[in-house]
Design goal:
four-stranded antiparallel sheet, binds adenosine-5'-diphosphate, Rossmann fold, binds magnesium ion, alpha/beta
């Protein structure tokens, strides 16, 4: 029985680092097929939210469910196998591994019955520029190429929900356009996406819905189109760029 219309649900999630309340009773829903964006200034708690979902920081309160199955408390590799893929902050492409090895790292976390070589072909079909770089070390890649490897590695896990933490950060404008083009294509192919972005204008242009975080608390949420005009967003975020 599939009674849940949701992919991912965070209910009253709280995270602390010592005395710092990084997330305070945050509730977020990401429904199947949506792009949802999380906006907020530096230090608002966006990366902590990603780390809470992927099991890298423990919750001090609240629960996280994916299609009705509880995720919080599971080890990070179990959470990945449940269908959470991640493009982490700073990309985290391994400099000492080749492009191929970086891509295949994601493969072990996949639930898919599609063979590895076929999934690799799909990823290379999406990022043809990587095909000639497969044996090169991650250290030799440009920021844009690293972002493609990080995205490809996440897609090798065949995620139900793809988390992306500031994928455009530090990229040249042409590469930023390319990253957003790929995000749009992924949506078309049915991937559900939770996108953290400092580029609020581009994020609101591509997202269906958005939430605004301010020092660990949700201060606004709604449709992306509606939030583009809301003064809370301008105050909390858009005004600072
Ligand atoms: N490992 C950590 N130890 C202590 N405090 C942290 C740690 N990581 C983040 N913080 C603090 O938690 C808050 C939220 O940080 P973060 O989630 O990285 O925000 P964002 O991604 O929105 O910039 C900030 O006040 C930050 O200084
Ligand atoms: Mg961050």
């Amino acid at each position: 029985m599939n009674s849940s219309p949701l992919d991912l649900r965070l209910s009253n999630v709280s995270v602390r680092y010592g005395a710092v309340a990084a997330l305070d009773a945050v509730s977020i829903e990401v429904r199947r097929g949506e792009i949802v964006t999380i906006l907020g200034a530096n230090g608002a708690g966006k990366t902590t939210l990603m780390r809470a979902i992927t099991g890298l920081v423990p919750l001090v309160g609240g629960e996280i469910h994916l299609d009705g199955r509880r995720l919080d408390g599971l080890a990070p590799h179990r959470i990945a196998r449940e269908g959470i893929g991640v493009v982490p902050e700073g990309r985290k492409v391994y400099a000492r591994l080749s492009v191929r090895e970086n891509l295949l790292m994601g493969s072990r976390l996949s639930r898919s019955t599609v063979p590895e070589h076929a999934r690799l072909e799909q990823v290379l079909g999406r990022f043809p520029a990587l095909r000639t770089r497969m044996n090169e070390s991650g250290a030799l890649l440009s920021g844009g190429e690293q972002q493609m490897v990080a995205l490809g590695r996440a897609l090798m896990t065949t995620p139900k929900v793809l988390l992306m933490d500031e994928p455009s950060l530090g990229l040249a404008p042409m590469m930023i356009d390319e990253v957003f083009r790929v995000i749009g294509e992924l949506r078309e192919s049915g991937v559900t996406i939770l996108l953290v972005e400092q580029n609020a204008t581009m994020a609101l242009d591509i997202a269906d819905r958005a939430y605004v975080l301010q020092t660990g608390k949700l201060v606004a949420s709604g449709t992306a189109a509606g939030l583009r005009h809301a003064s809370t967003v301008a105050d909390a975020y858009l005004g600072v760029i």
